[in-house]
Request: fold
Amino acid sequence: MPWNDRAGNFSPFKAAVLVGILLPALYLSWGLLNGSLVSSAPVSPLGARPITELIHRTGDWAIRFLIISLCVSPLRRIAQWPKLINVRRMLGLAAFSYALAHFVLYAIDQKLRIGFIVSEIALRFYLTIGFIALLGLSALAATSTDGMI
Reply:
């Protein structure tokens, strides 16, 4: 379980980090369901393109969690808090999950037209960089199991 330490005991710190990871997804889901994600839209509570707002916010959270996960090792040394390393994998997997949600929402926004999505990734430099980053995160996520560590 993600909230247990390696010995199998409940870890309040890991549980708090897990809740912190899930809060943005719950907030976005709640905003999507009740229509309060975009409050200043003239057409509807979600605006003319609510999926665009979700795409942007999941991408923002992917970057935030990636930066936080990269800060774990230096912060562990500076703060002299060795147990901080126990949540690095969880934070990295959160970054991957939000990045994957970002890509899936983009694909849905493009009506799952695979040929068009591939051509957009190839033609637009920022999409190429983002997709390469997603592939890198995918490799890291695939190798972050207990057996691989």
User: Anything to note?
Assistant: Residues 12-142 form one domain. Confidence is low (pLDDT under 50) at residues 41-45. Helices lie at 12-34, 50-79, 88-109, 114-123, 125-142. The chain has one domain: 12-142.
